[in-house]
Records
---
Amino acid sequence: MSVKQTGGVIMAKPSKSSGGSFGQRLKKLREMEGFTVSALAELVGMKPAQIEKLEADAMLPPVADIIRLARVLSVEPSVFMSDAPTPGRRERARATRTADYAYETLTPEDQRDSHLMAFRVKIDPQSAHKPVGYQHDGEEFILVLSGKLTIKVGKKTTTLATGESIQFDSSQRHQLTNPGKEQTVLLVVLYTP
C-alpha cells in the first residue's frame, strides 16, 4: 500500500528515537528493547509481515496500533505521532493520509503524553478506516462533523449522521466505514489508561 502524506508529517519527538521516518523509529525502538519482529508482532497483536511493512514505511498504522506499539516499546504514543513545534509559532495539526482515510492530531504538543488524545479523521466515500476491525484499551468518543458513519463495535452496528455521536469501550473490536458518497469527517477522542 502506498502512503500519501499531506499537510505535515507525523514525526517523532527526539527521545528514545533519534528521528527519521516512522519505520526507522519503530525499528530502532524495537531493536533497543531487544524484540525480534515476531516477538513485537505477538505482543501488539499484529502479524510479523505488518511490522515489516511498518518498518519499511510501506504503510502507516491506525492510531490504535500506534498506542499498542508505544505501550510495548515503553514510549509515549507522541513519539510516533508528532514532531517538535517551531518555537514561537502557533502549533498546527499534523496530518497523515493513507489509502482510504486521513487523520490529524488535534491534541496540543505539550499534552500529547496524556491519557486523552483528540483527532480529526476523514474517511473517503464508500470506504473503511483500515485495518478491518481493531481494538485498544480505554474508551473512544466519536462525533460525526460531516457525512455518514457506520460503526461496528463488537457485534453491534450503528449508523450515525452529521451531529450524532457514540461513546464505547474501545477494547471491543471496532470498525469505521463511510457508507456515503461524500467524505466523512469525524472528531475522535481516545482515552487510554
---
Amino acid sequence: MHESHVANQENNCKQADTDLSEGMKIHKQKISPLSGDFLSVANMTLEAWETLRLGVQKLLLVYNAKVCQHCSEVHVGPTGHKVRTCGMYKYEAWRGLHMWKRTVVDDIVPQKIVWHRRPQDPAVLEDRGRDYYGHAPAVVDICAQAGARVPEKYFCMMKVHGLPPNM
C-alpha cells in the first residue's frame, strides 16, 4: 500500500501547474557509502551547518527575537505578544502569558546532542563510563562518521583525546 501511495504522489505532484515529479526522482537517488560523493556530501553538510548557525547568530544581532522561558514559542519583533497560549506542560488546561527572554542561536537552531563513540571506547557504551564518553551535535557526529573533518571547536566536547574508561 505504501509503494502505491508514493507512486500516486509522484504521478500527481503538481504545484502552480508545474510537474514536480521529475525533481522528486532526483532526490530519491541514494548515495553509496563507497562512492566518492559520500565524503563530499558530509563535508558540505557540515559546512552548511556551520554557515546556518553563524548566519542565525549574525541575524540575531540585528533583529530582535524573544523566546518563552516555559514553552518553545519564538517571537520575532521588538516585543513579545500578550496572547495567552503558554502552558508550562502540554497537559495543562491553564494558558498564561509568556515569559519572554532574549533569543540565542540554540533556541532557533538547536543542537541535538548525542553520545560520541571514539575508537578507544567499547562498541556498546556503558553507564559506568559515562563520565569519559564524549558528546557532539548529531549533525557533527554523523558527518564525522562519514569522514568529514570536524572543526576544532568540537574537540573538547567530543573528548577526542580523552582516556578510555577503565572497565
